[in-house]
Design goal:
Keywords: Signal. This protein has about 180 residues and is mainly beta. It contains one helix and twelve strands; from the N terminus they run αββββββββββββ.
Length: about 180
Amino acid sequence: MKPTLRLLLLAGSLVTFPAMALEGETIGSVTATIDGTGYTGETLAFPSEGSAMATFVPVGPSVTVSVQAMDPQAESRLNNMLVIDFTALGTDATAQMITGSISWWPEGMDSPFYISDENAGHAGITLDSLSLDGEARVTGSFDTSICRKDGPFSEADTSKCVKVSGRFDTALHAQ
C-alpha cells in the first residue's frame, strides 16, 4: 500500500477513535532535523483499541514496517506527524532494505505534506536492529530529501524540497 494511502486510512481511523484512545501509551520515539529545525515525536499504542502507531506485517521472507510519530507538542495530534515506512527482505538486523519512504505532515492530513521520492528506493533508511520475536522492536536512522505535495494524488514539487535526517527507536505491534 502506498504511504500516502496508508496515512489517509490512518487519519480516518484516528478520527473514529474515542478521545481517550488518543491518550495512548508511548512505545517509542523519532528524533529528526527537518529543514534545519529539530523534531521530536512519539509512537503510541492504544491498548483499548488493540492498535499502535508502529506496526509490522510479515509477508513471507520479508516484512513491512510503518512508524508514525506524533508530535506531543502539536496543536492537534495529526499535525506535525513524521512517518517512516519500509519493506525489508528478512526479519532481523541483517534484513536488506527493499523500499522505503519518509513523509512529514506539518499541518495535518488535509494540508500539503512532504514525501521522499517514491521511486528512489529505500529513502536513506538504515536499520540498526530489527526484532520481530517476543517484544518486536526496530531502531535505525534516515537521511533523505522530502518534497512538497499538495495532495495525495498530486505530483511532488521538486522545487520545494527539504532535508530530513534522524533516528527512530520503537516497539512494534503486529498488524
